[in-house]
Amino acid sequence: MAGHDDRSDGAEEAMVAEAEKRPIATIVIVIAMQTEALPLVNRFQLTEDPDSVFPRGVPWVRYHGIYKDLHINIIWPGKDLVSGVDSVGTVSSSLVTYASIQALQPDLIINAGTAGGFKAKGACVGDVFLVTDVAFHDRRIPIPVFDLYGVGSKKAFSTPNLAKELDLKVGKLSTGDSLDMSPHDESSILANDATVKDMEGAAVAYVADLLKVPVIFIKAVTDIVDGEKPTAEEFLQNLAAVTAALEKSVTKVVDFINGKCIAEL
User: Fold this and answer.
1) Are strands 26-30 and 108-117 parallel, antiparallel or unpaired?
2) Which of 9-13, 155-159, 192-196 is the least confident region?
3) Are the beta carbons of 202 and 93 closer than 8 angstroms?
């Protein structure tokens, strides 16, 4: 006789297989900064949810609406309640990803945003990447097995048809909670074979994997990490223009997704 866990696993696999054959209906787009989110809010003609699906008192913002055959939800972690700046980083992104999955039950998550790029890996300012793999570069735990847990390597959901149709650059993403890059971070990023680095992706991937929701990553390069200019200066200088490139690419991705099931991506 099969144990209870075997039956549960079988039922879960059957549900996942069935979901992969169903047209995608609900998408959650997790975006860390308001500057990155608003062009897409306007493009998809979304409205801010006055009756938040999130716990009372949190600054998290949901913009939602219908675009073609899709119910689109853009989730922005909002402004930090103390400092008033965008709530960037892994903690906020993991929290809003978890809360969004619980409240909205999406068929697919897209983590879209800006990132630093490495010219040694072929990245240029304004490039938009479809991410193949994600990992952390600042969770250093030099104990056997804990070290692998710290890196937390995960594959993004495979989308060969999307990559081919839209002709996007592809590369690996490394995530950490600092905008700059320490020597320790640099060593880990090299080990992760990353083309782009951000402050959210691997955290979103962790939660999506935990709750078995497919996730893809679209990252637009604002600054060259191994270039000549200071990172913060270059990031701010290019943010507006690169956000426009991000909006165009995410729109193309959403247009491609419309009417398709997960297995067709």
Assistant:
1) parallel
2) 9-13
3) no
